[in-house]
Design goal:
The structure holds two protein chains of two kinds.
Chain A (H helix, E strand, L loop, with lengths): L4 E7 L3 H12 L4 E4 L15 E2 L10 H17 L4 E2 L3 E5 L6 H13 L4 E3 L1 H7 L9 E5 L2 E3 L1 H14 L3 E3 L2 E9 L2 E9 L5 E11 L5 H7 L6 E11 L7 E4 L8 E5 L2 E5 L3 E2 L12 H14 L8 E13 L9 E2 L2 E5 H5 L4 E6 L5 H16 L20 H8 L5 H10 L11 H4 L1 E3 L4 E2 H10 L5 H8 L11 H13 L2 H19 L5 H17 L6
Parallel strand pairs in A: 1-2, 1-12, 2-9, 5-14, 12-21
Antiparallel strand pairs in A: 3-8, 4-8, 5-7, 6-7, 10-11, 11-12, 13-16, 13-17, 13-18, 14-15, 15-16, 18-19, 20-21, 22-23
Chain B lengths: L1 E7 L3 H12 L4 E5 L11 E2 L14 H4 L8 H5 L1 H17 L4 E2 L6 E4 L5 E4 L1 E3 L15 E7 L7 H9 L4 E7 L5 H5 L6 H9 L3 H12 L5 E5 L8 H9 L3 E5 L6 H16 L3 E4 L3 E7 L2 E7 L7 E8 L10 E2 L4 E2 L7 E2 L22 E2 L8 E2 L2 E2 L3 E3 L9 H4 L2 H18 L2
Parallel strand pairs in B: 1-2, 1-15, 2-12, 8-9, 8-10, 10-11, 15-22
Antiparallel strand pairs in B: 3-7, 4-7, 5-6, 13-14, 14-15, 16-17, 18-19, 20-21
Helix pairs in contact in B: 1-10, 1-12, 4-12
Classes of the chains: A alpha+beta, B alpha/beta.
Chain lengths: 534, 416
């Protein structure tokens, strides 16, 4: 039994929970964050990784557009090491109505988004991968953001400011006294150990799973799971984010992310039971490829690395619980005023892009309830890793002449790269050749970033995210994990889990080179290693 | 250019078939793209370790009659199989690839993750064991090169300790490896093997290992010795003062590449021609006969032959190719055994048998591949290109390559 009382208990280790934990702890609150799996395991880690300029919403949802551009500019400063400032194009194709472009540009400008019409020829010169049939292009400040790194950095800072983090821990119930939530009951899913933690306020930041969390507290939040499928392509086919200049539709955003490209997404309502077992269907794959090829024709012949899907937490308006009218923006529910349940707050809706604003709003409410007068500082305080003004500056502080692998590490970790042992040859050995991840970086993640298994390492370091998808580096990282945790049997189980997870993303698109890679893995893991027999 | 037989594919099946045909006096050429599955072999060959229904097999030859008719071994027949099986060790020995193991019984090999895997014969670097719990010693010293990540000592130790052996792990830092270590991508099996092949590095290594041994009766080393010259294996075994056992590494496989190079050399010494780094294309047919092939590198030249052997491998080597809709044999457009819908291609669990592994070219009982439903008269398909068996599930990949290669070579050399 844990006797310590926290000011705030936050449920959910996605970007919203991590951001809220950081904001609360920066305002001096004692925070406990509880996540049932790993950080960024839900919708946070299963989207485009698009740093929206807000342009996508300019015509349909001006409030979201304004929020996006404001947060876009903030993240480019405070989360520099998580952001790739690529810019983005909204292209019009012959079948699109070019008159939409004028409205689009006008609305962008109204929302404060720089939107510049460029000549189709110039657009193709700047981004040769774009569809050569394009008849119009508008440049906007889109970019890409690494959601894993962003979440991890928020949590690193939260922990530096006293936040306790429990991963692989499920909330199984609430402790409610006199109509007030005063704590939670938990289950450690690895050890089976039960726990109780007391907190003055509990924040439900569990994304789509927040529906079930609210139900545990006896209140109803009307959510609708909307599945979005995406595909990762094996190359960075375009250096600029490509969107279609029309009303938002399926598969109309292509985002460059490190060495790969991501196309998405679809939108399908699914039952709650499917949220934990999503599969990408052949129809979704076909749609993503054919629509994606309209943005960048080369996608038609580019190898697909993975298919995956996330669940957006759509929230029904309280005035219309049928779900026909959906709130697209940030939803902050004070269950005291709404349901008469004190000490409980839900923060949901919103987007990866607006996580900081969601955290600010939730923390404002928490502070107000606790009677604490503390100002939000996350608009201007850089995340750990983004203190230096550029990757070059950060790398220069650590090494006289950084190697490619060291620059890649700084790209991932910013100033934190200095914490990674790189002085001896062993630490500099590459675990993952596709993504240039070193032994030092993997060991550092294991030591400092709450790593439980190989998939956790992948999220934190990108080991196994490149073209080979981890069949060799997974095994190398398993060896390092076995040594660090002193438990080989677990590392062995992790390796199998890692390969299973990898195959889940491969089989929906396993033809051509992906099937070749799959066969090679079968030979290595079954014929050479014999792991299929145990 | 005209040959008696043209073989497309320079992997295990193609080389065995080519060498056997040369030995019988035929003039042959092999079109080979370069890399093949032998480059990541485990150092061991499987003949048959499970039946189609998953029943474990200990004596492969006695189980041939229990296989389905589509399995290549059924097409050869158990009687012929018994004859061919006895030819394997002498054949490889003559090519400079001594093999260890009992032809009539399966043995076990320790894998790079410390698992015991059922195999048939192995390259003589490797140590075969009688049972799934057999010990290689009581006290084991596992030695690795510092910074070499593809030899997972912790996993091996765990696998052995589970079977009652006591393990200790050490690593050696050789000055000769300094250059490799200073470049973060260089500590890989083939580079290490090259360093050990030249000069005295291996002697320094042996001396370090001997200093590390305390009360251990057995030393385990990564199988990265003797890339160019297999005799280094013997020198190491003689130099280390206790019993030495080599265990395979993650790919690429040094013993696998060495045996592929040996086989290729034996083929060339026997007078065979290898068109290396080339790819066959543009077939010309005359009814059910293949008349000639072109290649990518030789624009004007046509390859003509009485017989053609297609040993282009499965998906990995591009002998088969999958589109989202279907599985093809891209060179000749041969008929393929596969399931109609993609649902039948895969199992969602990576570690369960995968349907696509069993896909491949359909043949008659003489390994003439079918094209448009009719067998091709002067064409043979061998090795992992063949359909009808899930080689990963059944542990018959190398066996099918070797047996179908020998069988087809015998058929061709005894005709006319």
């Amino acid at each position: 039994m844990n006797r310590q009382e926290y000011d705030v208990i936050i449920i959910g280790g996605g970007i919203t929970g991590a951001g809220t934990a950081r904001d609360c702890s920066l305002r001096g609150l004692k925070v406990l964050l509880i996540e049932r799996k790993d950080i960024a395991d839900g919708a946070t880690g299963r989207n485009h990784g698009l740093l929206h300029s807000g342009a996508r919403y300019a015509v349909t949802d001006s409030e979201s557009a304004r929020e996006c551009i404001e947060e876009n500019m903030i993240l480019k400063k405070i989360a520099r090491h998580c952001v790739d400032d690529t810019t983005g194009f909204f292209i019009s194709l012959p079948e699109d109505d070019l008159s939409f472009q004028a409205t689009f540009v006008e609305r962008c400008r109204q929302a404060g988004i720089t939107a510049e019409i460029i000549d189709p020829k110039e657009a193709l010169r700047l981004e040769p991968a774009a569809n050569p049939a394009l008849i119009g292009a508008v440049r906007v400040p889109d970019g890409s953001v690494d959601p894993f790194r962003l979440t991890s950095s928020n949590l690193v800072d939260a922990r530096l400011h006293g936040t306790d983090v429990l991963l692989y821990t499920e909330v199984t119930g609430f402790i409610i006294e006199n109509g007030t939530v005063v704590g939670v009951m938990t289950l450690d899913t690895r050890s089976g150990e039960k726990g109780e933690y007391r907190g003055r306020i509990t924040v439900n930041a569990a994304g789509i799973w927040g529906h079930g969390i609210a139900a545990l507290a006896g209140v109803n939040v009307g959510m609708f799971p909307a599945k979005g499928a995406l595909l990762i392509f094996a190359h960075r086919v375009a250096d600029i984010v490509l969107n279609r200049c029309r009303k938002p539709a399926n598969a109309d955003i292509l985002v460059p992310g490190e060495t790969v490209s991501i196309i998405g997404t679809t939108s399908t309502r699914i039952p709650f039971e499917e949220c934990d077992h999503m599969q990408v269907t052949p129809e979704e794959v076909n749609l993503l490829v054919s629509e994606g090829a309209k943005l960048a024709p080369v996608l038609e012949s580019t190898r697909i690395l993975r298919a995956y899907a996330g669940v957006r937490p759509l929230v029904a308006s309280d005035s219309d619980p049928s779900g026909r009218s959906i709130s697209r923006g940030i939803v902050l529910l004070d269950h005291e005023t709404r349901d008469g349940l004190k000490g409980f707050v839900t923060i949901t809706g919103g987007k990866l892009m607006t996580y900081r604003l969601m955290a600010e709003k939730a923390t404002d409410l928490v502070c107000q309830k606790l009677g604490i007068d503390a100002k939000c500082v996350t608009r201007t305080t850089p995340l750990p890793g983004s203190e230096s003004s550029s990757i070059e500056e950060a790398a220069g502080k650590i090494w006289a002449s950084p190697t490619t692998a060291q620059k890649a590490t700084v790209g991932r970790l910013g100033d934190n790269a200095g914490l990674i042992p790189m002085d001896d040859a062993y630490s500099q050995s590459l675990v993952c050749e596709c993504e240039e991840v070193t032994v030092g970086e993997v060991n550092s993640a294991i030591k400092h970033l709450n790593v439980n298994n190989l998939v956790d390492i992948r999220r934190r370091t990108r080991v196994g995210m490149g073209t080979c998808q981890g069949e060799l580096c997974g095994c190398r990282a398993a060896g390092l994990l076995a040594r660090a945790h002193g438990c080989t049997r677990k590392a062995r189980g992790d390796l199998k889990h890692f390969m299973r997870e990898r195959w889940k993303g491969m089989y929906p698109i396993a033809w051509g080179d992906t099937l070749r890679e799959g066969e090679y893995s079968q030979w290595v893991y079954s014929e050479v290693l014999g792991l299929n027999e145990e | 250019m005209r040959y008696d037989t043209i073989i497309v594919g320079g992997g295990l099946a193609g080389l065995v078939c080519g060498l056997r045909l040369q030995q019988s006096g035929k003039k042959t050429a092999i079109v080979s793209a370069g890399q093949n599955a032998m480059h990541f072999s485990s150092g061991a060959f499987g003949l048959l370790s499970r039946l189609e229904d998953g029943t474990p097999v200990d004596e492969p030859l006695t189980a041939i009659d229990r296989l389905s008719g589509e399995h290549p071994y059924s097409k050869i027949g158990s009687e012929r199989m018994s004859v061919l099986v006895r030819e394997v060790k002498p054949f490889f020995e003559a090519a400079g690839i001594p093999l260890t193991g009992d032809e009539s019984r399966n043995s076990y090999i320790i894998t790079p993750t410390g698992n015991y895997k059922k195999v048939w014969l192995a390259l003589d670097d490797m140590t075969l064991l009688g049972g799934s719990d057999s010990k290689i010693g009581d006290k084991i010293l596992i030695v690795n090169f510092k910074g070499y990540l593809d030899f997972n000592t912790a996993f091996i130790a765990e696998g052995l300790e589970k079977r009652g052996m006591k393990c200790r792990i050490e690593s050696v830092e050789l000055p000769e490896m300094e250059r490799l270590r200073s470049n973060s991508t260089e500590m890989r099996s083939v580079n290490i093997a090259r360093v050990l092949d030249g000069g005295d590095a291996w002697k320094h290594f042996v001396a370090s290992v001997n200093r590390m041994i305390t009360d251990e009766d057995t030393v385990i080393l990564p199988a990265v010795f003797g890339f160019a010259d297999g005799s280094l294996i013997r020198s190491i075994r003689e130099g280390v003062r206790v019993k030495t056992v080599f265990i395979g590494t993650m790919p690429p496989s040094v013993p696998g590449i060495r045996s592929q190079m040996r086989l290729k050399k034996a083929y060339e010494l026997s007078g065979g021609t290898i068109l290396l780094g080339d790819q066959a294309n543009s077939p010309v047919f005359d009814g059910d006969r293949l008349v000639s092939l072109g290649t990518v590198n030789m624009e004007e030249v046509r390859l003509e032959a009485d017989n053609f052997v297609i040993a282009t491998g499965s998906f990995f080597s591009r002998g088969l190719w999958a589109t989202p809709e279907k599985v093809l044999e891209p060179l000749l457009g041969l008929d393929v055994i596969s399931s109609e819908s993609r649902d039948g291609w895969y199992d969602e669990d990576f570690f369960s048998p995968q349907g696509y592994i069993g896909f491949g070219v359909r043949t008659d009982n003489g390994f003439h591949p079918m094209r448009g439903g009719r067998p091709m008269e002067n064409v043979f398909a061998i090795g992992s290109l063949l359909g009808g068996c899930n080689s990963v599930k059944m542990g018959c990949g190398a066996g099918v390559a070797i047996m179908t290669a020998l069988e087809v070579a015998n058929t061709i050399s005894s005709s006319r």
